[in-house]
Amino acid sequence: MGYHRKYQGRVAAEAARLPLYHLGGEGPLPQGPYVALVPGAQVTVLAPDLPPGLKGRAREVVARRQMADLFGRNALDFELRPQVLGAGKLPWSRALAVDPAERQKWLEKLTPACRAVLPDYMALPWAPEIWTIEMAEGQVRARLGVDDGFTAEPALALALLQLAVLTAKPKAVLLLGAEDAGVEALLKSHKLEISDDPGRYGAKIFAHGELVQDLTRDPGAESRDLHRALRPLAWPVGMAVLALGLWAGAMARETYELRAQALAQRKGAERILRETMIPAGPILDMRAQVSQLIEQRRAAAEQAGMKARPMDVFRRAGEVLADSGAQVLAVSYQAGSGLVIDLKARDFAALDQLVAALRGAGVELSVAQSTARENEGVEASLALVSNRASGGGSGQ
Known about the structure:
By secondary structure, the protein is α/β, with parallel strands linked by helices. The protein has three domains: 2-44 and 98-213, no CATH class; 262-304, no CATH class; 310-385, 2-Layer Sandwich (Gyrase A, domain 2). It has twelve helices and 15 strands. It has helices at 2-16, 56-71, 100-109, 154-167, 181-189, 198-201, 221-230, 234-251, 256-276, 286-305, 310-324, 348-360; strands at residues 20-22, 34-38, 43-46, 79-82, 95-98, 114-119, 130-136, 139-145, 148-152, 172-177, 193-195, 327-334, 338-345, 364-373, 377-385. A five-stranded mixed β-sheet has the order 9-8-7-10-11. α4 (154-167) crosses α11. Mean pLDDT is 80; it is low at 1-8 and 387-396.
């Protein structure tokens, strides 16, 4: 164990000495070994709600379904890369979502000397229970944990930081780069200690195994290797399946009653389908026909409603909230209601102005609840839904 820790420390020290190169930036690629950084806004950290007992491939499948539910069916085209940093013996709880087309463009720009490709926020110095925030090139880069971070425009970053500080407040914040009045005001409002000295908190670059999240690694390589290893077993397994089929046929005589029950259940299911979904026409393959009807209705609803994705709504709402002076208390997502934001405004007039500003930004919303608190302003819950894909229209 001691040798393993020494080896990890030596690898981290070597990684910290590697030069960093921002892909898409100016200047030639380094001649020697280096770490390439890509825009963090294109590498999203996801935190799916997964039970601890779910492991292996099943864990990734469930995470992909949740990603599709939140961001639409196009999200299934993205690569899902489990975050193994900080997981230890526990199953992974966060993952990186990457567009494979963008990843291929990054790989085409690299040279053989590249040691790893990482999102830019993973190159920030970090230490446990410390946040690192850097303002550079009009973007806010934030490292909120060993496996958590983001890169975003200032308005959206402010909303994300507000949500994060309400969820888990850090002991201190390492603030680097250019000054940002909004970020500093947010941190000071929560009485967080701020410093620009990484050494004060022991924050270091690549000291926690970040290179293991190398985006050049093919996420499907392990599955293909396993497939090749199992291929010689195809013939024995096929014979075993055939034998099992013959045995099942022999047992069919003794399962007549179960088959009758299954037939009765099918008739009941057909009756329900006649009443709810397929009033006329033959029912040949219930699963296929129901799936087709659901897909048709979903496509029609998407075309008719043009509802924005939750993150689009949150982005537009975050820009308005950042300028309104309202204090965000909590943000949640409900499948039937959309985004729900609990906030505190100065008074009812300020709340009305905020509602009007959100609608002017293209967000349709309803005030689910509003309560006046003596000497504390007005607390309200806003249910946000948008019928427009962009924030250019007027609200209803």
